[in-house]
TrEMBL record, chain A:
Recorded family membership: Belongs to the binding-protein-dependent transport system permease family.
Keyword set includes Transport: yes
Chief place where the protein resides: membrane
Transmembrane portions of the chain: 31-53, 83-112, 124-141, 173-196, 226-245, 278-301
Name of the protein described by the UniProt record: Sugar ABC transporter permease
Organism (species): Phycicoccus sonneratiae
TrEMBL record, chain B:
Name listed for the protein in its UniProt record: Sugar ABC transporter substrate-binding protein
Gene3D superfamilies per the UniProt record, alphabetical: Periplasmic binding protein-like II (3.40.190.10)
Endpoints of the signal sequence: 1-22
Annotated keywords: Signal
Pfam assignment, any one: SBP_bac_1
Keyword Translocase: no
UniProt-listed InterPro entries: Bact_solute-bd_prot1, SBP
Amino acid sequence: MSVTELDTVKAEAATEPRRVNKRELWSARGLLLPAVIFLILLTQVPFVVTIVYSSLKWNLLYPNDRGFTGFDNYKSALTSGDLWPSIVATVLITAFSVILSVVIGMLFAILLDREFRGRAIARTLMITPFLVMPAAASLIWKYSMFDTNIGILNWLSRALHLPVVSWSTEHPMLSVVIVLTWQFTPFMMLILLAGLQGQDKGILEAAQVDGAGTWRTFTWITLPHLRMYIEIGVLLGSVIILQVFDPIAILTKGTGGTKTLAYLLYERAFIGLDVGQAAAYGVVTVILTIIVATVALRTLFKVFMAGGSR
Amino acid sequence: MLSSKRALTFGAGALASALALAACSSGNVSTDSGSGGGDAGGKVTLNLATVNNGQMKDMEKLKTEYESANPGTTVNFQVMEEGDLRAAVTADVASGAGQYDVVTIGAYETPQWGANGWLVDLTDSLKSDSSYDVDDILPPVRDVNTYDNKLFAVPFYGESSILMYNKDVLSKAGVTLGDSPTWQEVADAAKKVNSADMSGICMRGKPGWGDLFAPLTTVIQTFGGNWYDDQWNATVDTPEWKEAVTFYKTMLDTSGEKDPVSYSFNECLTALKEGKAAMWADASVAASMLEADDSPVKGKMGYAHMPVNKTQQSGWLWSWNLAIPSSTKNKDAALKFVKWATSKDYIKLVGQKIGWSNVPPGSRTSTYEIPEYKEAAAAYAPITLDVMSSVNPKQPGVNPQGWVGIQYVSIPEFQDVGNQCAQLVADYIAGRGSVDDALAKCQSLAQAAGDKHKS
């Protein structure tokens, strides 16, 4: 008796929630709608507008000479010879900065992943470079580190009787990479530190009992465990550094193979004042970024996968 | 029951968000009209875009004087580097965005922007004000800011370029320079006084047409080269250019500052003040900063005409001017501020409040008749006036040219061409490429721009 009663109750309830769920789903969608519209307005509409601009002949210096030109802007963007060096500069600067900041960030994360007095203060101090605004960081490096007269680096080399280094003139790419590495090391350190602190201490103890040394424990247990965190760090770091602008504008002005895509875009739009051509460069950049994101990163992570045990 | 409740909640939520949106937009509208209708005597915020030179920073210090004399008006200074300023202001004014009420523009922009109708014509409103005395503005500077007999901008200061040198250092090395030295004499002198602690000469090397190419163009012109001939044919791949650019690099290599890509006006000024460089050929306005009370080299500096090679004069003629974009919503308030900032009284105000050697030079004839200024600027005021009146913006080089102006070509494409060429030359100066490659690429960039102006 009671069993059948339960069954009937269940059967009734099975139809009701489905209807409610549908309604709930729609009202949830309705509530989300303003946000979705807002997001589309903010991200997709500008992109469509950019595509439209890229087919226009529109130089701000000639306000009366505007019109449709089809693919002329793309033609000039692809044939001007500026695009390829710029892609190379972007890839090199991003790769060097990301790799260096992961390596150095790992070092600091391991050092901070132990108990010592003042650890909280040390950690806060280590994070500071990431909190400095990029333009301010570049200015600090330009004047107080790299400068040939008053910079600390050249003060050091003078004190050690080494030749004075003209950073921005002789080593433009290295200067940019150094500033970026300084900025992004704390970012990598934070991510890797989170990974290290999420590690099961029991496994490490077991490894120690089994007679594994520090190096073996690190390469065989800690590193595979950190792989996911490294991937996240590399991915986020690459995405942010790909669009780097400040150190180039402040230190090198795009000379010596440091004219990244972001800087090239800035030059076309704000110095060339050619809206059409700048938009075409922008669209080409987006296409290239999508290709890199889908192909290169996947291959990169496959290499990681093959090495690990996950 | 449940569903109707949810529908109600959703409806209420939608209504609330719609209300919130409406509130936001109406809020925006009211602030816009508030600042737009400010001329009627309400609160006005003037946005002023300006360049980060010392004279402009002094104006920012003195803006409170203006604000207290004109209650309700706030002047918001947006100080930028020369290159950034040019980019930001051109983009704003050309697109009619109306972000700025007063803009600082160079003599290069004024005639072009005036022709485009981007600037408010100031001729009548300044002529009708006898206390402003528009005829007191130095004639050559007034001329470069005039297009089609209309004055579109008023100079905040005018400048030429001169050679500045540390007399103590040069006399210790046994070097004497005349009033009008040649570039070869200057290069030799720089070599003699160059040492590990002090570079012989500081010259701009920062890539940018307003940075590196301001002095370099005058060097090229006095070596007999120019950007274009009088038919708009680019003349960059000529032996004169090569000789001048090679000369510039050799001088920097043997006795210039160590890191030229980082150096422009402000960096060289610091180097001179700190005793890290002995000579400097740059804007004449720098002299007033070297002679300021807080300058360690005050009274130790000597001044001469810009070095020459084949021409009689090689100084440039440049002015930074205040102009009002047509897109401003506060035209009357902006005009009032522009008049104040370029008036005779403002010049006296700077003298009294900041120091007579900081007075903005090269804008008004009357400035050079103020006794306090004559005394404070004794070292450089006469040569500044002398150079500014002897340069010839119609033909600064050896051959005739199709535009008026000295260290620039007054066509819209020039900042792009100059900027890209500056990067190519900077790569050559840093030893990453040959002079022939750099000039060949620059030639094709310049020719593409020149073709648009052939008639």
